[in-house]
Every structure is written in C-alpha cells, then in structure tokens.
Design goal:
- This protein is mainly alpha-helical.
- The protein has one domain.
- It is built from 14 helices and two strands.
- The chain has a two-stranded antiparallel ribbon with strand order 1-2.
- Helix 2 packs antiparallel against helix 5, helix 7 runs parallel beside helix 14 and helix 8 packs antiparallel against helix 14.
Length: about 300
C-alpha cells in the first residue's frame, strides 16, 4: 500500500505540467468507474450501491473530488517532496478526531506525547520551507489532509460492510460526473505520451488497485492505524522527488520529517497488551477489541 501511494506525487507533478487539476481528477476517476462497472454488475451489487449511495458519494467527495484538485493545484507551485511530507499530518489528525468520540476512552500520555512531537515536526517542516507565495498552497495541502482523515473514518464506520469494488466504482463515478462541466471548459489542446502514461498509472494502479487494497487494510486494522502507510509512502515520495525531479533536500525535510514520523508512530500505536477501543458506527458507540495474535500461514 505504501509503495503504491508513494508514486502518485511524482506522477501528479508530471501530469499537471499539461493538464488542469480538474481535468486530472476526471482522468483519474472516470476510467476506474468504467473498469469496475462489469465487476459490480457480475456481483449483482447494484442494490448495495443504491442502499449506500449517500455515504459512497460523500466518501468520493472528501477522498477524491476535493483533495485531488487541491493537491494537483498545489503541486504546480510547491515540490512533490513537500506535498508528500504535509500528508504526514493525516495520522495526527486521525488520532485527534478519534479522541473527539466521547466513547473512545481517555487520551493516554503516550498519545499526547506523539501529537506534540508530530506538531513540532509539522511546524518545523512548514516553517523552514515557507517562502513567498507558498502559504496558500500549504493551506490547500492541509485541507487535503482533512479530507484524507475523514475518508477512512467513513469507510470504517458507515461503509464497513459494503464491498470495496462497489464503493470505489460508485465514488469515482460520482466525482467524475461532478467534474465534467468544469473539464469541458478546461480541456487540454493536446496530451503528450508522458502525460498519458502518468495518468494511466495514476488511474489504474494508484486509484483502482490501491483503494481496493486500502479498504481491506481499514477493515483489518481500523481507520487510524491504516493511515500509518503514510510514513513509508512519504519517504518513497521524497526520494523520487529528489532523484527523479531533482527537487532540493531542504532543512525543513531534514528536521521536520523525522519528528513527524516519530510523533505519528507514537500517537497511532498501542502497547502490545493493550485493548483497542474503536467506534463501529452503531448508536451505542464503541466496541472493545482485545488484541489478536498474528495470523499464521495455515490460517
């Protein structure tokens, strides 16, 4: 999961050289919806799609529709390395939102420490890399983080029992249709082979394939822990940006990223013997889950 989501930052940076950010959103979502229609039809999941269409549409808006436009817009003005590093705020926001649930239990000193360390890292990262004109794009990326925080929570609470193919097909279809009017007015005059290849990988691998895997990850470990993939994909994205796009290795990256990484790990991990309290979407709020032993090869 982390490898698949470490690549898009570089590909987006390449694609927005020629494509309007809104057009890129359409190119990333429409092919996915079309590819998955036969799977939904073959599984006779239209009833499931209709029954959950409101939550599926909301998931599409907060996970695809708005964040991908903001991210693509930001990558026209800030490096892909800084873009990916700012996404490290997602695990920290996930813990903060999870703690707002009154049934979620008290916040441990360990989590407070993690949030504090991570916050210092974000301040170092943004403060040291902040130059004239970049504040607007950094704020855009923080809005992306909010969407990426809400999306997994919707999956874990409202769409937990819904088939992943149904969710991805419905969400991408809603977003694609919503962006059509904008894209008609911003359609590119030409699309190079490099741009086409970038969009193809973004759509098929980094959207269709990635979210099907991500849904299973959310079901397995929960919304907050699923965002831990952010750590590894960020490191990969920074490396690709520096090597592939010749982006600078700045003081903000050197000082801020380790702090965000350590803080997020502290805030989102539990002690081995601790039980985990999660919100399951039911009126009575939380369910206490005892730790499970790792699955072996025969299970």
């Amino acid at each position: 999961m982390a490898v698949i989501w470490g690549v898009p930052y570089l590909l987006i940076r390449v694609a927005v050289r020629q494509l309007d950010p809104g057009v890129l959103v359409l190119f990333r979502t429409a092919p996915v919806a079309l590819l998955l229609v036969p799977a939904v039809a073959r599984g006779k999941r239209w009833g499931e799609l209709v029954a959950n269409w409101r939550w599926i549409a909301l998931f599409g808006v907060v996970e695809f529709g708005i964040p991908w436009y903001l991210m693509a817009s930001a990558e026209r003005h800030i490096t892909s390395s800084l873009t990916s590093l700012l996404i490290c705020c997602v695990p920290l926001l996930s813990v903060a939102v999870q703690r707002l649930n009154p049934s979620g239990g008290p916040v441990s000193p360990r989590r407070y420490l993690g949030l504090a360390v991570g916050a210092v890292g974000v301040v170092s990262l943004v403060g040291l890399d902040l130059r004239g004109g970049t504040a607007k794009w950094i704020v855009m990326m923080l809005c992306v983080c909010v969407g990426y925080t809400i999306g997994p929570i919707i999956l874990a609470t409202r769409l937990r029992g819904v088939n992943g193919v149904t969710v991805v097909m419905g969400a991408t279809a809603v977003v694609a249709v919503a962006w059509v009017p904008w894209d008609v007015a911003h359609w590119p005059a030409r699309i190079s082979s490099e741009t086409f290849a970038s969009v193809a990988v973004l759509s098929v691998v980094c959207t269709a394939g990635a979210f099907l895997v991500f849904f299973e990850l959310v079901k397995e470990v929960g919304a907050a822990r699923a965002t831990v993939v952010t750590y590894v994909n960020t490191a990969l994205a920074v490396a690709l940006g520096i090597v592939g796009l010749h982006e600078p290795l700045t003081a903000g990256i050197i000082l801020g990223f380790p702090l965000v990484l350590v803080g997020s790990l502290i805030a989102t991990t539990e002690r081995p013997n601790a039980s985990v309290t999660v919100f399951d979407g039911h009126p009575d709020g939380a369910v206490n889950i005892q730790p499970q032993r790792p699955r072996g090869g025969d299970e």
